[in-house]
Inverse folding.
């Protein structure tokens, strides 16, 4: 499934780009409460699908205790997905926590995360498409921010504003925040992802003195436009469907683990 145009030349090169599964499990277990935010300050960018597959990988493949926090008051896609699959009798291998951002039950995300970090190995936050305060809390409390979008200007136009907000909020983060963009819904027979990367870097840097370069993951780890993503609304993804997401996780986690080992 992964981007064949950027395939590592051999197995040795691939392993230089990804962390071993055992190293990730050991790192997470020794710290607990790894908080991962998924989303950008814009709706409709594939974040809920990304959250689902990431949660399934951590829970089913790495056998970690996972909570998913749904902060999207507008669509609540993850909450509705869980309801659908429980009604079908499917085992959902992670716990769902609904986090309203408006109304009488609304509390700051940082307060919601505090008990979850001590109870779960991994907490994945499905960030709403436009709630800036929730996004800022995630950047101040989380360890990793993943920003999915399709390779199109219609979806990437808010990335620069998101990066600037994340950069300012991360100053308050005592552990530091790693931030990565990656593309989803990719048809690897075209060069559109490469073209969009170049266009983003050029367009965003020309007139913006506060330009923050888009920190893309290696293009080999972009996510394909696979049929099982569309079917997953009412068909539980299988382990083989999680392989490319596993590679993305192992690539993103490699830098975090090595940073802390070197410290």
């Amino acid at each position: 499934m992964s981007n064949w145009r950027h395939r590592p030349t051999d197995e040795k090169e691939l392993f230089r780009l990804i962390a071993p599964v055992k190293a990730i499990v050991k790192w997470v277990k020794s710290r607990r409460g790894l908080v991962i935010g998924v989303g950008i300050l814009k709706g409709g960018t594939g974040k809920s699908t990304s959250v689902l597959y990431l949660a399934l990988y951590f829970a089913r493949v790495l056998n970690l205790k996972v909570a998913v926090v749904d902060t999207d008051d507008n669509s609540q896609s993850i909450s509705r997905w869980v309801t659908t699959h429980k009604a079908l009798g499917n085992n959902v291998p992670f716990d769902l926590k609904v986090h309203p951002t408006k109304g009488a039950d609304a509390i700051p995300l940082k307060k919601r995360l505090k008990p979850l970090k001590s109870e779960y190995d991994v907490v994945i936050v499905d960030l709403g498409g436009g709630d800036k305060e929730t996004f800022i809390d995630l950047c101040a409390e989380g360890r990793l921010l993943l920003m999915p979008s399709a390779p199109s200007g219609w979806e990437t136009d808010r990335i620069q504003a998101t990066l600037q907000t994340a950069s300012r909020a991360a100053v308050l983060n005592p552990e530091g925040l790693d931030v990565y963009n990656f593309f989803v819904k990719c048809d690897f027979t075209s060069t559109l992802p490469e073209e969009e990367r170049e266009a983003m870097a050029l367009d965003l840097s020309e007139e913006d003195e506060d330009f923050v370069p888009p920190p893309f993951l290696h293009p080999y780890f972009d996510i394909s436009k696979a049929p099982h993503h569309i079917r997953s609304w009412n068909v539980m993804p299988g382990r083989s469907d999680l392989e490319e997401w596993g590679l993305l996780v192992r690539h993103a986690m490699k830098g975090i683990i090595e940073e802390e080992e070197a410290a």
